Amino acid sequence: xxxxxxxxxxxxxxxxxxxxxxxxxxxxxxxxxxxxxxxxxxxxxxxxxxxxxxxxxxxxxxxxxxxxxxxxxxxxxxxxxxxxxxxxxxxxxxxxxxxxxxxxxxxxxxxxxxxxxxxxxxxxxxxxxxxxxxxxxxxxxxxxxxxxxxxxxxxxxxxxxxxxxxxxxxxxxxxxxxxxxxxxxxxxxxxxxxxxxxxxxxxxxxxxxxxxxxxxxxxxxxxxxxxxxxxxxxxxxxxxxxxxxxxxxxxxxxxxxxxxxxxx
Length: 264
Ligand SMILES: Nc1ncnc2c1ncn2[C@@H]1O[C@H](COP(=O)(O)OP(=O)(O)OP(=O)(O)O)[C@@H](O)[C@H]1O
Known about the structure:
Blueprint: E1 7-8, E2 14-15, E3 18-19, E4 24-33, E5 36-46, E6 51-55, H1 62-70, E7 77-82, E8 89-92, H2 106-111, H3 115-118, H4 129-138, H5 154-168, E9 172-176, H6 184-199, E10 203-207, H7 211-217, E11 220-224, E12 228-233, H8 234-237, H9 240-251
Parallel strand pairs: 1-5, 6-10, 6-11, 8-9, 9-10
Antiparallel strand pairs: 2-3, 4-5, 4-7, 11-12
Helix pairs in contact: 4-5
The structure holds adenosine-5'-triphosphate.
């Protein structure tokens, strides 16, 4: 039997008459932990320059997919192809996964976005100060440069992390629930930054729970429930039928929950 064709979240843009290669390709990819699959048999292309929401019930595999895209976990089966080098991929984990007790100021945290370009042992000095100041201004944190990150509110910390992303100059940006527990003003400001990245031709994938926000601000959607339910234009994907199917899939016992033999 032939493998199913990869589904695309948006048509591939043309490059001199030829379609450009996907920013990410999942070729029959199964992901999981300790050989127990969490997401099965993904066939998926993410077009360069696309802005895609990943939605699905709790435990659907959204974070797992993002971690795999970032190269933090390896597929149990199948192949992930990345159209951009690892150094141009930025990954922002869920806020709960971040340790903000580290003794770091807002300025230092944001300046870390320049490490890739300066090299780990390169000096981030006065000549970089205007760019760091500009990133802080863009997220509305001017004046908080010297504050320890442990003394920031959740929304301020997320703004600082977005400022760090601004300096990273990533071609592929992976955001895991970036708006969790943030107020409407912060969500609106950070959504505007995400749109700016899209306008600059960067590829953005974000795991989100707020379907209203997804409908308003994310042109493409990938609906997961331990497997791919649908992907494509948001209004085509987020139908009552697809959402009901995703709920059923997440409530049903997982027939594939045994160790993945093929991955052994
Ligand atoms: N480190 C881990 N070790 C073992 N199992 C894990 C690990 N992380 C996630 N899982 C399991 O993988 C499955 C998918 O989890 P994942 O966190 O990717 O889902 P999610 O869609 O991001 O969920 P949520 O919306 O609750 O954040 C779940 O069954 C989860 O329990």
